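queue> pop job 88
queue> type: inverse folding (structure -> sequence)
queue> payload:
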């Protein structure tokens, strides 16, 4: 009998190394570009007025100056930066397609070596992430145009290194990540949870919980997320509270979350905690979004069993 754990394969092998330029960041970058362009236009207009003393001419010259400044900024910063990020995205998508082919091939041939397969998949993802990180080195020259660019690139480096478990590098960007995305917030919380466990603390009072680095990131994160986008953050924090011995606080957090989102996982876990069943608490329904934090291993479910027919068990001749 050959057991193929398809759940683990599909959830781990297709782990998404996928992100795009943060929409909030993109809007802010556009606004700053326009602001700088307007300053440039005013400077052009004032220069014209001062030199030629022409009021209407200064307005026209100012408008031209604004457009020229915006064009230069777009050509020098935004366009090449977007192309660089697209290059990273393309590389990761290519790796995802390669992994999917491996998964399909493995599933079509029952009895394969699962450990060897996962090793191959991990290498594909690791190679893609490392190559993508080299692409991001080219973004450094744009930092002088806007400090927010560095913050966005650091966030991308944080995500890539986290996905391939390069935690030494992850820790370098903990203080500079852009927390407008739930996956980034939960990754930062997970890393701080590993580094600042309350389990061995002598004082597990609410004062200690309030000053816990994980709590501070959680509060900052959910403050920036609305509705269902905050659900995963609430659930992750509640899981950490349960593991740290704060069952009542976990219930309180989830109750707060239920007022912002009717998330199925949150409502189910509220029911479990109200029935005094903290051991039944589970975020498994979030799938790979949850397991990508590496706080828990996917359940080892036997999804497919291939049995050799007794009729064909003997020699073929």
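queue> result:
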């Amino acid at each position: 009998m050959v057991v193929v754990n398809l759940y683990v394969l599909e959830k781990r092998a297709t782990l998404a190394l996928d992100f795009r330029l943060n929409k909030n960041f993109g809007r802010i970058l556009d606004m700053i570009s326009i602001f700088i362009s307007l300053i440039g236009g005013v400077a052009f207009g004032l220069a014209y007025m001062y030199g030629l003393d022409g009021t209407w001419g200064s307005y026209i010259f100012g408008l031209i100056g604004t457009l020229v400044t915006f064009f230069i900024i777009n050509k020098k910063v935004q366009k090449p930066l977007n192309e660089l990020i697209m290059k990273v995205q393309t590389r990761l998508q290519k790796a995802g397609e390669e992994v999917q082919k491996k998964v399909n091939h493995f599933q079509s041939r029952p009895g394969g070596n699962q450990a060897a397969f996962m090793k191959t998949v991990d290498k594909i993802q690791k190679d893609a992430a490392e190559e993508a990180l080299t692409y991001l080195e080219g973004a450094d020259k744009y930092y002088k145009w806007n400090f927010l660019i560095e913050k966005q690139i650091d966030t991308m480096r944080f995500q890539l290194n986290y996905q391939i478990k390069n935690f030494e590098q992850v820790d370098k960007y903990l203080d500079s990540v852009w927390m407008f995305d739930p996956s980034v917030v939960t990754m930062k919380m997970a890393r701080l949870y590993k580094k600042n466990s309350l389990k061995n603390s002598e004082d597990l009072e609410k004062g200690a919980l309030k000053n816990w680095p994980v709590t501070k990131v959680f509060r900052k994160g959910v403050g920036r997320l609305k509705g269902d986008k905050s659900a995963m953050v609430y659930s992750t924090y509640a899981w950490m509270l349960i593991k740290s011995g704060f069952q009542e606080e976990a219930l309180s957090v989830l109750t707060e979350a239920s007022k912002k989102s009717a998330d199925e996982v949150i409502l189910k876990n509220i029911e479990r905690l109200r029935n005094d069943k903290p051991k039944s608490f589970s975020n498994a329904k979030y799938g790979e979004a949850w397991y990508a934090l590496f706080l828990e291993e996917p359940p080892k479910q036997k999804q497919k069993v291939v049995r050799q027919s007794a009729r064909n068990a003997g020699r073929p001749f």
